[in-house]
Design a protein that fits this description.
Blueprint lengths: L3 E4 L2 H12 L4 E3 L6 E5 L3 H11 L8 E3 L3 H7 E2 L2 H10 L4 E7 L15 E5 L4 H10 L3 E2 L14 H8 L5 E4 L10 E6 L2 E6 L8 E2 L21 E2 L9 E5 L7 E2 L6 H17 L4 E4 L7 H14 L3
Parallel strand pairs: 1-9, 2-9, 4-7, 6-10, 11-12, 13-16, 14-15, 14-16
Antiparallel strand pairs: 2-3, 3-8, 4-8, 5-6, 6-7, 10-11
Helix pairs in contact: 1-5, 2-7, 7-8
Bound molecules: threonylcarbamoyladenylate and magnesium ion.
Length: 304
Amino acid sequence: METRVVPFTDESIAEAAELILAGEPVAIATETVYGLAADATNAQAVARIYETKGRPSFNPLIVHVPDLDAAQRIGAFDEAALELARQHWPGPLTLVVGACEGSGIASIVTAGLPTIGIRVPAHPAMQALLHAVGRPLAAPSANASGSVSPTRAEHVLKSLGGRIPLVIDAGATQRGIESTIVAATGGALRLLRLGPIEVDAERSAPGSIEAPGQLAIHYAPSKPVRLNVRQAETGEYLIGFADVDGDASLSRSGDLVEAAARLFDLLHEADASPSSRIAVAPVPDEGLGEAINDRLRRAAADRH
Ligand code: TXA
Ligand code: MG
């Protein structure tokens, strides 16, 4: 695929919006780093972000919205979260809050978690794209897995050239580092990632708090999970793939993008089913399959 780098104009934003609504990820400047944006309500489009970056694991992604009103349609803000939002938005601050049910955000965006990371970016290019698309955008940094975050369009081209259709070039980003991340859940503020904005909050690494009711970075089903299963045992809910049929299938055609897009929905479905245990068919360990298997191994290992 040819990757075109085009300057930020009304026309390039309209083109980017069209691509995004067709399920393609597009790279675009924000005030922190260039992001690889996809429609957060389209699970397959978000799965393509992972495919494009070659990321071997799923992390919850930050959802970008144009303003606080839009943020409150997808997340539950308590007083402390509202205060931070009013103080720093639009700007390089991400707030992790409770996710609203029925908001239409795909489960792969939050990696199955009941919380959601939301940011209202200040950059006019990203703002214009959000308005043109009219949907929340999931956007990690626009670089291949393992390389540094891009602060110029040419960094994006070097890292993802040939793998995405379009880069919206708005010059060097002002901040140059990713947004500060603060979790505002359960009545307390916790600093999850240092960034351009200083916030007075207790500092904790993501994933360090796994107690019930607190912040977990990985979703894990409450039931035992058995992997590489071709034939379910009694009492097992089998999540199939390709030629392995089950109670449900990640992808009957063996398509890894579809499988990634359905993974967290099916884990939740299996967890909510009357079966007492979960079994999952083998998934090839190539391309997106690597990220799927990483997540399945965690689901099988970290029960809490
Ligand atoms: O500046 C930025 O934030 C850039 C630009 C493009 O906006 N984006 C960015 O996204 O840095 P990314 O995918 O590299 O960072 C996502 C991180 C996750 O690794 C995780 O640490 C945190 O955000 N995060 C997102 N949702 C979360 C959640 N529900 N719970 C805990 N952490 C979350
Ligand atoms: Mg990153």
